[in-house]
Amino acid sequence: MADNIQENNYMVNDLAAQSKQEFYPGRVVQGERQGTDFIFRCDNGVQLNLQVITDKVLRFRYATEAGFGPDFSYAFPQGVPARQDLEFLEFREKPDHYRITTDRLICVVDKENLRTRVLNRSGLVLSEDEKGFHWEYEYETGNDIVKMSKLVQSGAHYYGLGDKPDNMNLRGKQFTNWGTDTYGYQKGSDPLYKNIPFFLGLHQKIAHGIFFDNSFKAGFDFAAERADVSSFWAQGGEMNYYFIYGPSLLEVTQEYTRLTSPPELPPLWALGYHQCKWSYFPESNVKAIAQGFRDRQIPCDALYLDIDYMDGYRCFTWSPTHFPEPQRMVRELAEDGFKTIVIIDPGIKIDPDYSVYQEGLKNDYFCRRADGPLMKGSVWPGLCNFPDYTRPEVREWWAGLFKGLIQETGVKGVWNDMNEPAVFEKGTFPDDVRFGYEGYPASHRKAHNIYGMQMARATNDGVKQFAYPNRPFTITRSTYAGGQRYSSGWTGDNIASWEHLWLANIQCQRLSISGFSFVGSDIGGFIDTPDGELYVRWVALGAFHPFFRTHSSGDHGDQEPWSFGENFAELAKGFIELRYRLLPYMYTTFWQYNQQGTPMLRPLAFLDQADTDTYLRMAEFSLGDHLLVCPITQPGADGRWMYLPRGNWFYYWTDEAKTGGAEVWAAADLTRIPLFIKAGAVVPMYPLMQYVGEKTVEEVTLHVYYKQGSETSVLYEDGGEGYGYEQGQSTTRRFTVTGTETGLLVQQQTEGDFQPTWTTYRVVLHGLPFAAAALSTDGQPAEATEVTTETGLTLPAVVVGADFTELVIG
Description:
Helix 6 (392-400) runs parallel beside helix 8 (444-467) and helix 10 runs parallel beside helix 11 (566-581). The strands form 9 sheets. Strands 1, 6, 7, 8, 9, 10, 11, 13, 16 and 17 form a 10-stranded antiparallel sheet that branches. The protein has a 9-stranded parallel sheet with strand order 30-29-28-25-21-20-19-32-31. Strands 2-3-4-5-18-15-14-12 form an 8-stranded antiparallel sheet. It contains 13 helices and 51 strands. The longest helix has 24 residues, at 444-467. By secondary structure, the protein is an alpha+beta fold. The chain is globular. This is Alpha-glucosidase. Residues 597-683 form the Glycosyl hydrolase family 31 C-terminal domain. Residues 699-767 form the DUF5110 domain. Residues 263-588 form the Glycoside hydrolase family 31 TIM barrel domain.
């Protein structure tokens, strides 16, 4: 008997040991083509479904012996990726491998072990499995821990992965995706709020990307544990990833963003300056802040109300003490040009007298634990229940709740916070919380990383419904791949420090190249109080981020532009004014993002990946096609050294010409930020306004920068509000600048019938190596004048009609 017990114990221990071992695909025994899918089956039941999405995008989807589950992902608007028609697709079987060939790529599948290699058509290996797909059974959950390891190609560099607060180049680092409320994070803190499992690789000056579409807790190793191996893995779900070919870094991000879908255009005012604090209350304080902006003539479009505007932190309510007449207040603010934005968190207070709680309870809209009880967690209102945004009927209910705020009260935008989801003391929900997950029931382990995204989706649906015919504006702290479709974002609870100013620059660039361009940071820092110098330097950087908002915690002092003295207020005002002049450029850059998936903020390597000196630099970035920015991130500095990409550039503040491919000194006291304009660029500017729509724009200034050679620029216009642009009510103007030693030609091509309010351009000429003695517009003589620019330069200029086709300067 004793022998039997010992034998049985041995057997149990042996099984336990097996449960921790790694498993691998067997030998491929069958490979077949089914349209643009290629199915490979192994002798141990493992399968690979290799899908050709486009000639540049391949999907690798693996299944163990259990087979494939439902094909659904929140990353895509329709749950699955849209495919393109292919002009060429070939499938061949060789003695030891299968080969799939598109116009752009070759994929080799090894028969011995299912490992894959992806090459470009020139034969350069872009991605090659090391161990390839393997997995480990996790007894506690019943899930497979799915893993993929790849060889690090010679000289490889890695970028992307969302909001990670670390060096731009990820090589040598490990990261985790598990959305977390990380108050006061530091450089290297991980994980943070957002979960974007997309990264870019660059080697031999050729770029590709990997999108690991798995919502479970995921890990990424960029040659950290082993110098010659990179890997990614998840605590459940499928090994399901997309290989995305460039060959440029810019094209990789474009392909990924188009795959997951870019956002709609925002209202133009959303690209203005926003002021926020935890918290502005009561009404008299909000009115005083508004008056402070208008009295000082500091432009501002939006004021925010944090959680204290609510009645006991109950979502969709107003405090009768702090804001007794919210509709009147919001209307009066709007009359002065201010749009009111309010916060909404996911926690619904457990209160039998609270209508939102009653409705959620009655209709069973709240998340439940595994054995049936409602999920309870403490956040700002106290003990709360939480909606299950992964159910369509719950999202529809949630969207309907915004009628009061948006349609009836006049609020213009909504800010979603605490949606990782965050719970006091515990961090987040327990793993056993259950979700509908679009009809594919799941636990919190699978739904956690998409919770914030789905809340933002439901919120955006509601704001859009009740703001119509105007466009919605929403903000989210947490998101997943594809979340850019529903919301803008910010980088979370940062700190008033020079290091965090540096981090804000990196994080916003990284989010932008990860498909999420409509992003900014809490200017000045949310935690602690900056001094005036740090605040002004931060405003200067924020002026070039798509989302431009000061936000701070009220218990650390005031953080309005004038809080540091009127001298610093004037300095901040100068950068805010520059932002408002640049609105047509910023809006055009957003339109390019909407149309082509181009990141609005682009790191230096994206501007010239053929120049290896750009690979490790991270301070410099471009906004759109033609502005190069490099913030000052140290106290007491009167300028900085920075690297200019190859080509010719003009220093914005002085018009000094510089040749790129080298470091240059940019003198920048507190009145300046290092800002260069690409030679040949046409930079449009509006007249100064205190808020979008304050005055009718009758003339647009075009700053034309000389180039010996040719350069193209774009100006997009659609009125900045409403959905007429979807019916063609927009105009795209393409400018081509061609310069010689003795002349400059500016040509305009116009597409679209939309008629903007302005009828003339004031063309300001920068960097001419000759006197502008003779000018003509469409064959008719034109008169040159001199203008003094905002930077104090006196330059030649000419006024022309907005419909001109050719301006000749000689």
